[in-house]
């Protein structure tokens, strides 16, 4: 951590980005005080937050999605709100509404829970489409409109939305326009036997205290440094070839949009910086390909009937597209 009053610009100039690597690893370790065995998931959520991207989390109940999101918000010193999506949830329950204040003799804004840094939209597919769409403007524009007046959202603003892949009854599939706005889709699985033993041991004692490592202003500084990371033209071509390959397959009904290319570019730059590099390598793209593409590809019904999975398609594409060699 740095002393209060130091500007982000001074830190970057003084320590040449080492502070980013050190604080990222410290933040990772702070979250691991409360979360067992989800290192890659935590890393990818941090990457998304550093580039202000949204994340779709898919996993069964009880695997610490809320606990993880809260721990990440704590160590980044960001505001955190959890919204339980239900069939009767209204858009105004999310973004807020105008209410009459009898003392002031006028209507005033009663802000909804969306006015925070990190939102956990729990079981987002349980709310009707009208309510889901209330997130669209916020996710894309980082602002909301209430009674014709536009209100900016704080920086960073990141939506972590969860879905239960098992219980489909009473759910509303997310529209393609909304799914495409998520930077990554991360799959959370059950813990291993050893991890579950560690979880039990952890719960037999008091929760550890998560220390604040970064703050929103420093996150903005990291975002600025990520944008400066060099990406060779061959890496750009590699990304475009991977995404383009999703659109030219017989087993795919709908391929990934250009947002997928942008997601891979932003995520790969962030990974490079967090690996103490100022340039992107093909492995940075490969590490994020499944997360950036799996929710943007729609298989043909015939392919699904034969047992083909979206991740199978992505793996085949990565094995087929030629990997560039950096000079």
**Uncertain residue ranges:** 1-14
Major beta sheet summary = 5 strands, parallel
Highest CATH level, the class of the largest domain: Alpha Beta
Query: Which fold does the CATH topology of the largest domain refer to?
Result: Rossmann fold
- Helical element count? 14
Q: What is the total number of structural domains?
A: 2
* Computed Rg: 21 Å
CATH architecture of the largest domain, by name, is: 3-Layer(aba) Sandwich
Encode the helix/strand succession as letters: HHHEHEHEEEHEEEHEHHHEHHEHH
Morphology: globular
Topology, number of strands:
11
**Strand arrangement, largest sheet?**
2-5-8-1-9
Question: Secondary-structure map with pairings?
Answer:
Blueprint: H1 8-15, H2 18-31, H3 39-50, E1 54-58, H4 65-75, E2 80-84, H5 91-95, E3 96-101, E4 106-111, E5 118-122, H6 129-141, E6 143-146, E7 149-152, E8 158-163, H7 176-179, E9 182-187, H8 193-203, H9 216-228, H10 233-245, E10 252-254, H11 258-274, H12 282-293, E11 298-299, H13 301-305, H14 310-320
Helix pairs in contact: 2-4, 9-11, 10-11, 11-12, 12-14
Attribute tags:
327 residues; alpha/beta; Rossmann fold; Helicase, Ruva Protein, domain 3; 2 domains; 5-stranded parallel sheet; two-stranded antiparallel sheet; 14 helices; 11 strands; 46% helix; 16% strand; globular; disordered N terminus
What this model shows, in words?
The protein has two domains: 1-225, Rossmann fold (3-Layer(aba) Sandwich), CATH 3.40.50; 229-327, Helicase, Ruva Protein, domain 3 (Orthogonal Bundle), CATH 1.10.8. It has 14 helices and eleven strands. It has helices spanning 8-15, 18-31, 39-50, 65-75, 91-95, 129-141, 176-179, 193-203, 216-228, 233-245, 258-274, 282-293, 301-305, 310-320; strands spanning 54-58, 80-84, 96-101, 106-111, 118-122, 143-146, 149-152, 158-163, 182-187, 252-254, 298-299. The protein has a five-stranded parallel sheet with strand order 2-5-8-1-9. A two-stranded antiparallel sheet has the order 3-4. Strands 6-7 form a two-stranded antiparallel ribbon. The longest helix is centred in the last third of the chain and has 17 residues, at 258-274. The radius of gyration is 21 Å and the shape is globular. The protein starts with 7 loop residues before the first helix and ends in a 7-residue tail after the last helix.
